[in-house]
Design a protein that fits this description.
By secondary structure, this protein is of the alpha/beta class. It folds into two domains: about 170 residues, NAD(P)-binding Rossmann-like Domain (Rossmann fold, 3-Layer(aba) Sandwich); about 190 residues, 2-Layer Sandwich (Dihydrodipicolinate Reductase, domain 2), CATH 3.30.360.10. It has 14 helices and 14 strands. It is globular and about 65 Å long. The N and C termini lie far apart (about 45 Å). The protein binds nicotinamide-adenine-dinucleotide.
Length: about 400
């Protein structure tokens, strides 16, 4: 008993130690993860294999003021050396922020070595890898978080709670879009690091923009409504000559309970920056959320004025404790991208602490995307690629 109390005290009174794979010089999302973990002070970055090039990994380690001996030339070296450290120094968890093709081998290796994982999306390269990874997560009993960061926004949680509480009535229609324009030219041929792997099937997977951003749309609709896609009919397009993966796609979707609608993702929509937005219509009301204006949620009625719910207000907290839990500063001071990542990290961190301590987490902490969401994402990618204009069933 005393031993258990000591273990609980040890893990509840210290920061969790994180290692990172990816996020080297010039990389995009690794740096967002690093900034997000700093917001709540629950997690500290202690080591990393930051780049595919060992020299650049060292350079990044220096930039981050990490001790040289904790900056590794590869993720394999990181696992070997971290595993050899005393338990009170080695990492608890790893953040995987590399291109899609390496998520599976890296996640598998860290899980099997006994570390918890936070992984970028899309989770794997195909459905088979996703199912294998789910098996490994179950077998190792490690916590696996997937960075579908948009489910971390307070007003998305409010939207989910409004749907759950029946404010919209029975859902009839969903429209969800993720529109960008940054891949409207062949910038992969002009040295863009982010464009080059995203347009290469060997590194990106079977889909281009549907894997990169379409999976966020699929995940957001399922998160807010709790409804899974039953079947879909996709029209994928490659507009930029010579590109090997689609850079645009329009999908008709049937969700559970007879809900119909559409999902589109595009990276050639010139002028759109990160036009990720969702509209949900029930038989009593409708709602609308835009990630470029994430502090507002608009609710619309048949015979009444539109309401704009604003993050940070008491009425939001009353309706959605999850939205309040994910809010750090008062209304009127905008919160956004970093905070949403931090909300996912905070819930994952609390769940990891409880797993290490052997106690049950607060159910509120379990509100983060998991390996199941990752598998859904891969099933979605497989279905849209297979569709070619025909209706295709998604697994139940
Ligand atoms: P990026 O090209 O900017 O950076 C990738 C980094 O990973 C580089 O530093 C590269 O050297 C490193 N790397 C590659 N293989 C490695 C290996 N084996 N070991 C160590 N480092 C390695 O890519 P990005 O835009 O940051 O995207 C990375 C991942 O994050 C992708 O899976 C992408 O889909 C995802 N992503 C998610 C979001 C989100 O909103 N959740 C946004 C952007 C990207």
């Amino acid at each position: 008993m005393a031993k258990k109390v000591k273990k609980i005290h040890e893990v509840m009174t210290r920061k969790l130690r994180l290692g990172m794979v990816g996020g080297g010089p010039g990389a995009f999302i690794g740096d967002v993860h690093r900034k997000a973990i700093g917001l709540d002070g629950q997690i500290e970055l202690v080591c990393g294999a930051f780049d595919i090039d060992p020299k650049k990994s060292k350079q990044m380690g220096k930039q981050l003021y990490l001790p040289a001996k904790r900056v590794y030339g590869s993720y394999q070296e990181m696992i070997q050396k971290e595993s050899a450290l005393p338990a009170d120094q080695r990492i608890d968890m790893v953040a995987i922020t590399t291109p899609n093709n390496s998520h599976f081998p890296i996640a598998r290796a860290f899980l099997e070595a006994g570390f918890h994982v936070m992984c970028e999306k899309p989770m794997t390269m195909d459905v088979k890898q996703a199912k294998d990874l789910r098996k490994i997560v179950r077998k190792t009993r490690k916590i696996f978080g997937l960075m579908h960061n948009y489910t971390g926004y307070p007003m998305v949680k409010l939207a989910r709670d409004m749907v759950r509480q029946g404010d919209l009535g029975a859902i009839r229609k969903i429209k969800v879009q993720y529109a960008q324009g940054w891949l409207s030219q062949a910038i992969e041929k002009k040295g863009s690091m982010q464009a080059s792997w995203r347009t290469d099937p060997k590194q990106s997977g079977a889909a281009g923009c549907m894997g990169d951003i379409g999976t966020h749309a699929e995940n957001l609709a399922e998160y807010i409504t709790g409804l899974r896609i039953v079947e879909l009919c996709a029209d994928l397009n490659t507009f930029v000559p010579g590109r090997r993966l689609e850079d645009d796609g329009n999908v008709l979707v049937h969700w559970q309970k007879g809900v119909k609608g559409l999902l589109f993702a595009s990276q050639i929509s010139i002028g759109e920056e990160n036009g990720f937005a969702i509209w949900i219509y029930g038989d009593k009301a409708g709602l609308e959320w835009h990630q470029e204006y994430p502090n507002d949620l608009t609710v619309k009625y048949l015979n009444g004025p539109q309401q704009v719910w604003r993050r940070g207000n008491g009425y939001v907290a009353e309706k959605s404790p999850a939205a309040a839990r994910g809010t750090r500063i008062p209304f009127g001071h905008p919160e956004g991208f970093f905070e949403a990542f931090a909300n996912i990290y905070t819930n994952v961190a609390e769940t990891i602490r409880c797993r290490i301590a052997g106690v049950k987490p607060d159910p509120a902490a379990l509100d983060f995307p998991t390996v199941e969401d990752g598998l859904r994402g891969m099933q979605f990618i497989e279905a849209v690629v297979k569709s070619k204009g025909r209706w295709v069933k998604m697994p139940k």
